[in-house]
Amino acid sequence: MGKHILCLDFDGVIHSYTSGWKGADVIPDPPVPGALGFIFNALEYFNVQVFSSRYNQPGGIQAMKNWMYQYGTEIFAMGPGTDNKPEVPEWLLEVGWPTEKPPAFLTIDDRVVLFTGRWPDVEELRKFKPWNKK
Fold it and tell me: How many CA atoms lie within 13 A of 75 on its CB side?
C-alpha cells in the first residue's frame, strides 16, 4: 500500500505570503520558517502534494516549482550542478503538483476551519483571520 496523501496549501503555509497577491507567477517572499524542513521530513511518511489557486492561471505551477527549488537548494546548501546552477535536491522532485485537489488523508491550509459535525456561526466565519494576520 502506498503512502497517504498529505496536501499542503502553498501561499501562507509554504510561501510566507507577506507581500500578498502579486500574480500567479510572482512569488516574492521567503518560506514560512520550517516549511521546507517539514516537507523534507514528511516525505518519509506521506505522498506530499502541493495545491494552490495559482494552478488555474498561466505560469502558476512553474513559478511555484521554481520558487521551491530555489529555496530548497539554498536552505539545504546543495552542491553545484551544471552551468553553475545548484542541483535540485532529489527530495524536492518527490513533491507532487496536482492540477486538481487530491483525495488527501490530511490537508494543511491557513484558510480552513475544521468541520466537527456542527456548522460554525456565519458571523464568526466572517471574522476569520489566517495565522499570519492575527
Answer: 20
